[in-house]
Write a structure and sequence with these properties.
alpha/beta; binds NADP nicotinamide-adenine-dinucleotide phosphate
Length: about 375
C-alpha cells in the first residue's frame, strides 16, 4: 500500500524502514525538511502511520520480514536506511530480508542501524570498530545485533548492495525511553545507579545520529564500512541522569546507590531460535502478519513464558530498579570515539550534549512527564 504521493518522489529517493520508531520519526522530521533528498518512509502497518502521515510524504507499508514484499516498497529508491527492530530472531532475519530486498529492488546502498552494544554495554577499554565481536553476551539483543552484522557481511560478498553499518550508543532525545523510564523510576522512588553515576555514558543525541545516518547514506567513502557514532563530549551517567532528576524536583540522593550486580545471562527463547530456522521462514510466508503479531502478543502476555530481566530487584513498588542492560551500561569506563566517522564521513555532531539534554527535558514537559513531583 502507498500514499498517493509516491509518484512525486524525486531522486535520490531514500527509503526509511521503521519510520515510526523513536529514531525513525526524528529521521523523518529532519531528512524530509531537506531539499537534497526525497524521503520514503516505510512502516509495517497503517497503525504505524499515526505520526508519519501528518506530513505529506510518499510513505509505503510493507512486511519487514518478507524480501519480496519489502522489495516492492523499495522500488525507485537508491538508498535504504534500516531503523526497525524486532525480537532477537527477527533482528537477524530483518538484516537478511533487507539485503535481499535491496538487491532485488536495485537499491545501491543499505544503511543498517546496529548498536555499540555489539561490543557489550560495558565495552573493554580501547574498543573501536575493528575490535573482535562475539555472540555470547549476557544480553540477547547484543548477540542478535552481532549475528545481524555477520549475516550482512556474508551477504554483501556478492557486491549487489553496499552495506554501511552504524553503531550508536545510548540514543536520547524527545520520545526516548531513557528519559521516560528515568522519570517514571524517579517518581516511583525506585531510580538507581551504580557508583553514583561515575560510569561512562556513550550518549548520542538523536539529531546527531540522524546526521550520521545522512552521511552514511550519501558519502561515497562509507561503502562497506562500520562506524561507531556518539556525541562529541565525554559524559558520565550522573551527567545524564542528574539533570533529569533536578528537572523533576529531585536531589541526586533520589538515586539509590547499588553495588555492582551479578549479571545472569538472559536465556534466548526457543521461539527466537525457531524464528532463525529455514522452516520458520517458509511457514511465515503463509501466515498473515497481523496473525503473527497477535500470536506474539499473546505469548508475551502469558505469565509462564515471560522472560525475566537478567538483573532486577523488584520485591516492592519502591525497590531500586536497574535492568541488566542499564547495570552493564553504568559499569562502562570507556568513551567510544568518533575518530573513524570523523575521518571517513566528515561526521561532526551538530548538537552539543547540553543542548540535546535541554531539548529532551523540554519534551518531558511537553509530554506531561516533566512536572516537579508533588
Ligand atoms: N534507542 C536506542 O537507544 C538505540 C541505541 C542503539 C541502537 N539502536 C538501534 O536503532 C534502531 C531504531 O531504534 P529505536 O529506538 O528507534 O526503536 P523503536 O522506537 O522501538 O522503533 C523501532 C521500529 O521498528 C518497528 N518494529 C518494532 N517491532 C517490530 C516487529 N516485530 N516487526 C517489524 N517492525 C517492528 C517499529 O514499528 P511500530 O511503530 O509499528 O511498532 C518502529 O518503526 C534499532 O535498530 C535499534 O537497535 C537504538
Amino acid at each position: 500500500m502507498d500514499s498517493s504521493m509516491s509518484s512525486a518522489a524525486t531522486p535520490p529517493a531514500i527509503a526509511l524502514i521503521g519510520a515510526s520508531g523513536f529514531v525513525g520519526l526524528r529521521t523523518v522530521e529532519l531528512l524530509s525538511a531537506r531539499t537534497d533528498c526525497s524521503l520514503v518512509p516505510v512502516v509495517r502497518s497503517a497503525a504505524s502511520l499515526a505520526v508519519v502521515s501528518r506530513q505529506r510524504l510518499a510513505w509505503r507499508i510493507a512486511d519487514f520480514l518478507s524480501a519480496e514484499l519489502l522489495a516492492g516498497a523499495l522500488r525507485d529508491c537508491s538508498v535504504c536506511i534500516h531503523a526497525a527492530i524486532g525480537d532477537a530472531g527477527q533482528i537477524v532475519r530483518m538484516a537478511e530480508v533487507a539485503y535481499r530486498a535491496c538487491a532485488a529492488a536495485g537499491v545501491r546502498r543499505l544503511v543498517w542501524l546496529s548498536s555499540a552494544s555489539v561490543h557489550g554495554q560495558d565495552c573493554a577499554p580501547g574498543t573501536e570498530e575493528s575490535s573482535p565481536l562475539h555472540d555470547h553476551h549476557p544480553i540477547v539483543y547484543n548477540n542478535a545485533k552481532v549475528r545481524a552484522e555477520r549475516r550482512l557481511a556474508r551477504l554483501a560478498r556478492d557486491r549487489r548492495v553496499e552495506v554501511v553499518i552504524l553503531r550508536p550508543g545510548v540514543v536520547f532525545g524527545p520520545r526516548s525511553r531513557w528519559l521516560a523510564d528515568t522519570a517514571a523510576d524517579l517518581r516511583a522512588g525506585r531510580a538507581a545507579w551504580l557508583d553514583e553515576g561515575r560510569g561512562v555514558c556513550n550518549s548520542i543525541y538523536v539529531d546527531n545520529l540522524v546526521e550520521a545516518i545522512r552521511l552514511a547514506a550519501t558519502v561515497a567513502a562509507a561503502a562497506g564500512e562500520t562506524f561507531l557514532v556518539g556525541d562529541a563530549e565525554s559524559v558520565t551517567w550522573a551527567d545524564f541522569l542528574q539533570p533529569i532528576a533536578g528537572h523533576l524536583g529531585f536531589a541526586a540522593s533520589a538515586f539509590h546507590n547499588l553495588p555492582p550486580p551479578r549479571v545472569v545471562p538472559e536465556r534466548e527463547s526457543r521461539w527466537d531460535a525457531f524464528t532463525l530456522t529455514p522452516a520458520y521462514a517458509r511457514l511465515s510466508n503463509f501466515v498473515p502478519s497481523r496473525a503473527k503479531r497477535l500470536a506474539k502478543a499473546l505469548a508475551a502476555a502469558w505469565p509462564a513464558q515471560r522472560t525475566r530481566s537478567a538483573w532486577a530487584l523488584r520485591p516492592g513498588p519502591a525497590a531500586p530498579r536497574l535492568t541488566a542492560e542499564l547495570a552493564l551500561l553504568q559499569l562502562c569506563r570507556w568513551k567510544l570515539t568518533n575518530t573513524k566517522a570523523e575521518r571517513l564521513l566528515g561526521y561532526r555532531p551538530p548538537v552539543a550534549f547540553a543542548e540535546g539534554l535541554r531539548r529532551s527535558l523540554a519534551w518531558l514537559d511537553f509530554a506531561g512527564l516533566g512536572r516537579p513531583s508533588p
